[in-house]
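pasting for the record
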Amino acid sequence: MSFRLRVLALVALVAVTATAATAWLVLRQASQQITESATADQNITSLITDKLRGYGMRHGTWEGVTRVVEQLHQQTGQRIRLITEGGEVLVDTDHLQGRGAREVTGPPISVNPRPTLDLPETEAPLGVVHEIAAQIGHYRQGVHYAACLTRMGVEVVMTDGPYGVPHYPTSTADSPHCVATPSSHVQRADQETVSACVGPEASPRVFRSPAPERPRADEPADGELFTRCLRQAFSQRVAEFAPQTLEVYVGARDEAAAPPLAVGPVLLATGLVAVLAIAGSLLVSRRVLRPIEALTSASRRLGAGDLTERVPVVGQDELAVLARSFNRMADSLQRGEERQRRLIADVAHELRTPLANVRGYLEALKDGVVDPGPALFASLHEEAVLQQRIVDDLQDLALAEAGALVYHHSVVDLAELLETCRIAHQAVADAAGVLLLASAAGPTLVNADPDRLRQVLGNLVTNALRATAAGSVTLTATQAGAQAAITVADTGTGITPEHLPYVFDRFWRADAARGRSTGGSGLGLAIVRQIVADHGGTVSVASELGVGTTFEIRLPLLPQLR
């Protein structure tokens, strides 16, 4: 991953983490407190109403409920206020504590201790009517009995009866005067109220939902009407003697609000986020500034002339790429400096000998030591030609390396080029007793400057003829895939393996003495390599000492010949 992406990822991570952590913590804590508060309020309210409803249903009266309210207040810590259907305050914990009643909060909660009739599906309504009327009587008698026991302070026993109507087992031994039998007039009223749900004929019917032609969704079936009527009749008769419904208020308006949001975890999260942001910033600054400081220091020393200065390279990001580029620049400067020094030394060495010769002869002529003659003038002319060749070669090489050497490309047949080169050097080869051969495997066409290619081959053939005292020099041209291969092979002295890597260097010559007998300026092979490279090709050499040397040039073929 690049350095830029890592910085962006780190900053985004810090920002997202900080925002998410803070938001999550605040929302979680707020939601938890709200949920806990709402759950606690709901649980407390349910506890209070369940206790009160259970007391009213069990005891059949609200007498003595004050003790239960006090227990609930101590258990929940809530202010509890009970009001009857008529608006009478039955119990208020504020009054029990000797304080004025505070303003209530929220709507009241209804506590109805009366049983709800639970009717099963049936097809015999008259039997159900009689049974419900009997249950009303049993419940009236039981509620009276339970209320009486409550006033006497005796424990009340309640069991589940049919149709959801509680039963209160009576015992004349415990309280004989609490047992009372309802009058026949009351029993007839119960029977008449319930029987009115069947109809005036009071005959058995099956209450099933008929199938009218166009049923209405808001019109209940006969069975539903019957059930609703029975429940209304039951509630009407029970309401005359059962404990009345109470309205319960829990809490007061001026009670303490919900606990405030805890700031400790929020501060802790903020501190952690700040530490993370600081650590990330330090990491980024350290990762960025350390390589930049190293580059700055190295560039100063490089500018001061220390071309051996390099910077360490770590990673694959932009800073590492910059460090590699700096090192490559330093390497290039160092190599250029070394080449310049070698060039100056080599030029000075190459020009020193011919200039010394010319100076010596001129001083001898001046002093009259030697007589001017044709041999002396021929020697001086040879020295001037050698200097001119060195200067011309240096100029060609400088232009080629600077990319300023002019090329005139055209289609060149290498077979013709080799034959032309052979003819041009045939006289020199014959004089040296060397067999010069040229061959090509058919037409081999390349896009090149013919004059520069003749210059390349001329340098190679000249070197081969100098290195071959007796033997042969062979020029060949073949096709190798998408390239044309030109070889110049001789059977001369060869080059030692330790010298082979330096044959294309400037002013390098196989003759370590660099004498005039070997000829050459030492720049020919460097010019060859540069011209071939400008044509998009390569040149290589293979040699064996005492066997001979082979130079191979590879150039791109014309596209239609590939």
